[in-house]
Amino acid sequence: MTVLAVSNVQELLAGTLLILGLAILAIRSKAIDISGAILGAIICFAAFLAGGFEWLLVMITFFVISSLFTRYRYDYKKKLGSAQEKGGVRSWPNTLANGLVAGLASIAEIVSHQDIFIIAFLAAVAGAMSDTIATEVGLLNGSKPRLIMNLKKFVEPGTSGGVSLLGELAGVACALGISLLGIVLKIINGTFGIILSGFLAVFLGALIATNFDSLLGGTIQGVNRCQVCDEETESLVHHGRPTLSFKGVRFLDNNAINLIATIAAALLSIVLFLVFVSIS
Fold first, then answer.
1. What are the start-end ranges of the E strands in 114-198?
2. Domain-wise residue ranges, the chain
3. What is the pTM of this model?
């Protein structure tokens, strides 16, 4: 049975105007380009229809905090060669990678109105936020990160598969924060057992998926080399010429890995939720 969280025209209008206003503000502040803003607005609208202003607030929290941390000490990150491209301005591939699963979970919630899709939505957002902030904060770590496949090996900051204590703590904080936000906003609701199961499922699903992202980044993520400047890059074209693949799967860039990780966060959280509920 299709169920919308928005109960009247006034709420629908207010939510729509808020989403459009935030999209325009994000574009003007150069946090996102037009293509990313349009896709983001569509995903946010789906979340709004599924869970009202509470779900929308979760999406806004993710975008605002992620954007702030992307901009924080951007020049330093740029010197490391690991800053977000285009001055930190996100585009539609990044929006798709981090928001598609949350959007699909929202649509599934509208159509079926099942608790598992509430959990999947929160875990997808928590996983995307945890990974994003862990990366941005990890770049500021005082020492070199370690390779997740071999923790005895140090790698350069920004290397796919590199992890640091500071980054891990940031990831834990984000996964915990979104999980708690879900409870505070009563998105996760019901008996104590349901609430506890939902909290643990979202937190653990997001945290495991964040490290799964690092593992994929260090193993199958594509790394290419420019034929002109010999620089390592994820781009398929650099300096106007096709790059040469020398590691991983050529077409699996960071956005593709992020999408896989958010899918993992949602699916894992559903499994964990069902297990926790069954034993609570």
1. 146-147, 150-154, 162-163
2. 9-279
3. 0.91
